[in-house]
Amino acid sequence: MAALNRDDVIAMLGPVDDFVIAEIIGMGATASELAEARAWTANDEPLMNSGKPLAGGRIVRLIELIRDLEKDEETLATQNP
Question: What is residue 30's three-state secondary structure?
Answer without folding.
Answer: strand
